[in-house]
Amino acid sequence: MSILKAIIMGIVQGMTEFLPVSSSGHLVIFGKLLRLELNTGIVFEVMLHLGTLIAIFCAYTKDVWSLIKAGIGILIDIPKAIKTRIQEGHWTNKEDNRKKDPYRKLVWLIIVASIPTAIIAFTMKPMIEYLFSSLLGTGIALLVTGCLLYIADKIIQGTVQLEELKYKNAFVIGIIQGFATIPGISRSGSTIVAGLLNDLDKESAIRFSFLMSIPAVLGAGLLELKDVPTEMVSEVFSAPYLIGTAVAAISGFICIKALIVILKNQKLHWFSYYCWIIGLLAIISHWVI
Questions:
Q1: pLDDT category, 36, cuts 50, 70, 90?
Q2: 3-class SS letters over the chain
Q3: Domain interval for residue 95
């Protein structure tokens, strides 16, 4: 792979992963219309996923480290809670733990949201694989994404902060993220809209959307990693792969920051027009190619 192609793929990955335009939808459309061989190899796809994870870590460094520490704390406390239950007949006061560290609740919110995402993605896998070869299905999904983005700017500003989000609402947002595995449905766009519909304020909706994407992106990367032949692992350290990863991280970080500003200024509908145009192009192309 050339360095130029690695840079281009890194930019595309970073932009479409976080901007609400559906990276998978673009993969289907450009693969069909331009008849390009977009399969860049499993190793490179894993590296690009790593780049997008780095972007999230850099944009939400404090949150990520706090979540890691809170997660470790939860694992350490589980044996203590079981011991307390056996010896004293009651569980450790979870509310006290949350007050000491609100990130503990955020860990559980992400876990609760990730459960329906994983179940839906697994059960819908055959249909999703079929849709990756369908311009018509992808085009319709992009039209739906456009409608969701347009609605987002019309939604009344929520007042609920992320730490106040209820588990049932997190579960609903996780369901939406599961359906976002359909090519053409933007993961970031649909989960942000779902957050807003569940009364999260805009900053919290964006924050939860990206933080809950960490298990999803990491899981997708690990699933791809299991298919990597041992002899290809050395490619990870080649210049094009490292440069592509870095470019995906940089472009992804810029897009995260840009999306925050765009949503706060109620300009998310800009992307709805783009999705409608690309969606209609895909649907028309279905009938003529």
A1: very low
A2: CCHHHHHHHHHHHHHHHHCCCCHHHHHHHHHHHCCCCCCCCHHHHHHHHHHHHHHHHHHCHHHHHHHHHHHHHHHHHHHHHHHHHHHHCCCCCHHHHHHHCCHHHHHHHHHHHHHHHHHHHHHCHHHHHHHCCCHHHHHHHHHHHHHHHHHHCCCCCCCECHHHCCHHHHHHHHHHHHHCCCCCCCHHHHHHHHHHHCCECHHHHHHHHHHCHHHHHHHHHHHHHCCCCHHHHHHHHCHHHHHHHHHHHHHHHHHHHHHHHHHHCCCCHHHHHHHHHHHHHHHHHHHHC
A3: 3-288
